[in-house]
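About this split. The held-out portion is used to measure sequence recovery: a designer receives only the structure tokens and must propose an amino acid at every position. Recovery is the fraction of positions where the proposal matches the reference. Here is one held-out target exactly as it appears in the evaluation file.
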């Protein structure tokens, strides 16, 4: 019996000729839609796609098994109607060759098929969690012990600054941060290049704060807050004027506050900080006794709201430009040492796993990326060859893929989508 597809589901089933992103809540029939999309293409007699020309990547083995089972059931359903149909018989055979598997399994197979070009042993195996935990702890402990010894001999002043930053009495925080950065780097294509770019940002001590990455972000956030505050204060001014809430002096002070906030977006870092530190300072506006109570309350609530937003914006400017420069200069050697420690840890972990003949999931993903992507992110000859093997690539739970995984799939896709 044909399913009653919604218009959105029908679009996901029938769309052709490019990348397609399907957003669906749990229980909304996503697996059924994907199954129908694949089987519809397989069963299209005018423009059929062989069952083994699909790459379907899931996050769990159960999901992969369910997907293949549903497609097989649909083919068997059609075969039951036409038992002697050679086309359907062929597609049923090809389905057994289809790559419908977990991301882990796909990367593993890609690496196994190309281990020689990667310089890897043919018997490389996945590492179990217990072994990986022990290896991680031992490697990190040995690395930090060496650094402490060197710092004690005065050979590594940057490390002393780093431990002081995290707390010299306990290196637990430092260990956690190294592992956190290590984990992040393993989800990024070409991580050393990314680290170098981040370190360059910390080397911009002489750059005005408003021109740095952080300064731009903080100013943008502050401007968003002040825009809302300015609108609230303009509303307060309008009501104060029409309702004669304040004396001329009080109204003039309120108008000056509103005008100052309207000018905020044109200020540099120090100008913005000075304005926020002083825009409401020393102003205690007392309404007229005979002013309407509702007007007074409205103006007060609008102005109080604007003040709170301005206080939030002011908190984004912990120091002036000179203090910002001093902080950047002090942080640079700390960050440089932290990055180098993380790189050293990464190198040692790779060596330990190589010696044991094991690799973890992120290793297999990195190996796969090396096979299909050039350093500039374009597909390698192998990447283009794999792209030619598949008519469609489907990635389940795409929102959970990281940048490295995304680059792999882009490099084995026909149009990079």
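Reference sequence for scoring:
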């Amino acid at each position: 019996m044909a399913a009653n597809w919604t218009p959105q589901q029908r679009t996901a089933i029938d769309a052709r000729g490019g990348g397609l992103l399907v957003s669906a809540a749990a229980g909304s029939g996503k697996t059924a839609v994907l199954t129908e999309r694949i089987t519809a293409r397989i069963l299209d007699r005018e423009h059929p796609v062989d069952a083994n020309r699909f790459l379907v990547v899931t996050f769990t083995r159960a999901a992969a098994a369910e997907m293949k089972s549903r497609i097989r059931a649909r083919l068997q359903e059609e075969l039951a109607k036409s038992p002697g149909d050679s086309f359907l018989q062929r597609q049923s055979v090809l389905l057994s060759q289809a790559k419908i598997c977990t991301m882990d399994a796909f990367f593993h197979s890609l690496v196994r098929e190309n281990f020689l070009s990667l310089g890897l042993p043919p018997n490389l195996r996945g590492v179990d969690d217990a072994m990986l935990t022990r290896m991680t702890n031992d490697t990190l402990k040995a690395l930090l012990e060496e650094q402490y010894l060197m710092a004690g001999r005065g050979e590594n002043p940057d490390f002393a600054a780093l431990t002081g930053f995290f707390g010299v009495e306990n290196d637990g925080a430092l260990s956690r941060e190294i592992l956190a950065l290590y984990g992040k780097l393993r989800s990024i294509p070409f991580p050393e290049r990314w680290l170098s770019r981040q370190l360059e940002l910390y080397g911009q001590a002489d750059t005005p704060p408003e021109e740095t990455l952080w300064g731009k972000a903080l100013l943008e956030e502050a401007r968003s807050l002040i825009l809302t505050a300015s609108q609230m204060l303009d509303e307060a001014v309008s009501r104060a004027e029409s309702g004669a809430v304040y004396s001329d002096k009080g109204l003039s002070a309120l108008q000056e506050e509103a005008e100052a906030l309207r000018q905020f977006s044109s200020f540099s870092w120090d100008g913005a900080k000075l304005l926020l530190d002083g825009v409401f300072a020393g102003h205690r506006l007392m309404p007229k006794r005979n002013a309407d109570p509702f007007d007074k309350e409205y103006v007060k609530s609008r102005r109080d709201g604007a003040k709170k937003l301005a206080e939030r914006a002011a908190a984004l400017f912990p120091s002036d430009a000179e203090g910002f420069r001093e902080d950047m200069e002090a942080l640079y050697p700390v960050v440089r040492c932290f990055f180098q420690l993380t790189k050293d840890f990464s190198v040692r972990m790779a060596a330990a796993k190589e010696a044991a003949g094991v690799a973890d999931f992120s290793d297999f993903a990195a190996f796969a990326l090396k096979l299909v992507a050039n350093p500039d992110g374009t597909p390698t000859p192998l990447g283009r060859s794999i792209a030619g093997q598949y008519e469609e690539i489907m990635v389940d739970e795409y929102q959970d893929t990281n940048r490295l995984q995304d680059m792999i799939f882009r490099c084995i896709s026909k149009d990079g989508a």
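Annotator remark: The two ends are 34 Å apart (CA to CA).
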